[in-house]
Amino acid sequence: MHLWISAGELSGDQRAAELFRARPDRLADIAAFGITGPNLAAAGVESVGTIDRFSAMGLGEVMRLLPRAIRLLTRADRACRKRRPAAAILVDFGAWHMQLGQRLRRQQIPVFHLAPPKLWAWGTWRARTLQRSADAVGVLFPFEVPFYERLGLEVVHVGHPAAAHHVVRGDASRLLLLPGSRPAEVAAHLPIMLKATEKLATRAGLRRTLCLPPNVQPPQPLPGDVELRRVHGPEAFGDGAIAVAASGTVNIELAALGIPFVACYRMAETTFRVGMPLVRVRWLNPVNLSAGNLVVEELVQDAMTALNLERALSRTWERRAAISTELEHVAASLRRPDGLAACWEVLSRWL
Q: Cα 41 to the chain's mean position, in Å?
């Protein structure tokens, strides 16, 4: 018996590997194959394609990667026609996986989509595509459950893996700069973050600390008071007192540690002008979305200036104790220890 499993980015690859490793004992010897990154490969999944250089930010980068995406889609389709998996697990990477999911379901292969596209935020016109591409979905946030149920899909609340990290807190002496994990994000955010954090770091006696993945270089020389950490994840945040962070999964990681932060994001202007009219949510930050109210300040696009960010950080610092408590409550609502087991309850009916 075969199982298809695929991810499109490193975070999805990690989540997919965690799910695969949590399979029940009776499926311990199942032959899994798919589109892999280092985590899925290490978990024993045979690779028919890899995720390297397969992430994009902005319309220009998406168009540049489109030919490769189409080639990989064709390769995945052919591999499944040849090996006939009993089921397919698709993780994140919504646009590409919805195309693959439709092809697999036409082959009568049931599809479980973990972390499906956020149609509740934007792109509701794609609901029919998701209905054609998945039999069941696993969602990270509790508020997503009723939305996908209304589409007629079976829904499992998995919980958010970033909320489950256990890191020993240090002496809270750092002002963390978290501009993102992609070079384009870092280039857009870091210069503003550096300028905006100078005064608070001096006034509060905090050491500014920039956290970047090993493969991403700072786009400019760093001031002498800024320490560079070549780790991008919760293990690097334990001594943080406050942070400024690009909006995304890292916000949940900070919430799990109770570290107050200001969220911000700048993207390519064309992407922003095309995409923002389609957005149907009040906030872009996952912490605020989960709480249903404004827990942390967020600055997007033109609002992300050094002055605005400096002022938001100052307000956050003054309210840091109250914000920390709210963040811990949000993180607790996102934890589900049996979430992966719940996914396998669905998958086991097909295997």
A: 20
For 329-339, what is each residue's pLDDT tens digit?
999 999 999 99
Length of the chain, in residues: 351
Question: What integer pLDDT is reported at residue 59 of this predicted model?
Answer: 42
Q: In DSSP terms, which residues pair with 50 in a beta bridge?
A: 36
CATH topology of domain 174-333: Rossmann fold (3.40.50)
The encoded tokens of residue 260 equal 């107050």
Residue showing tokens 């589900």: 336
Q: Do the two domains 2-159+336-347 and 174-333 of this chain adopt the same fold? A: yes
Residue 130, token pair as written in the block? 């998701």
3-state SS assignment for residue 203 = helix
φ, ψ of residue 219 to 5 degrees: the values are -75, -5
Q: Nearest Cα to 127, choosing from 135, 117, 136, 137?
A: 117
Q: Are 276 and 315 in contact (CB under 8 A)?
A: no
Place of tokens 């920390």: 324
Q: What is the CA radius of gyration of the chain?
A: 21
Whole-angstrom distance, CA of residue 51 vs CA of residue 181 = 15
What single letter denotes the amino acid at residue 290? S
**In the chain, what's the furthest Cα-to-Cα distance?**
64
Q: Please state whether the predicted TM-score (pTM) of the whole model is above 0.70.
A: yes
- The CATH number of domain 2-159+336-347 is 3.10.129.10: no
Domain locations in the chain as residue ranges: 2-159+336-347, 174-333
Residue with tokens 């990690």: 14
Tokens of 175: 């002002």
The band of 122, judged by pLDDT with boundaries at 50, 70 and 90, is confident
Q: pLDDT, tens digit, for every residue of 235-266?
A: 889 999 999 999 888 999 999 999 999 999 98
3-state DSSP assignment of residue 241: strand
Query: Token pair for residue 111?
Result: 């599809």
In 3D, which of 257, 218, 222, 252 has the Cα closest to residue 237? 257
Q: Is the separation of the CB atoms in 118 and 140 below 8 Å? A: no
Q: Is 36 exposed, middle or buried, given 0-12, 13-18 or 19+ CB atoms closer than 10 A?
A: buried
Extract the tokens encoding 140.
């990270």
Residue 115 and residue 134: Cα distance in Å, rounded?
A: 12
**Of 79, 121, 86, 118, whose CA–CA distance to 100 is shortest?**
79
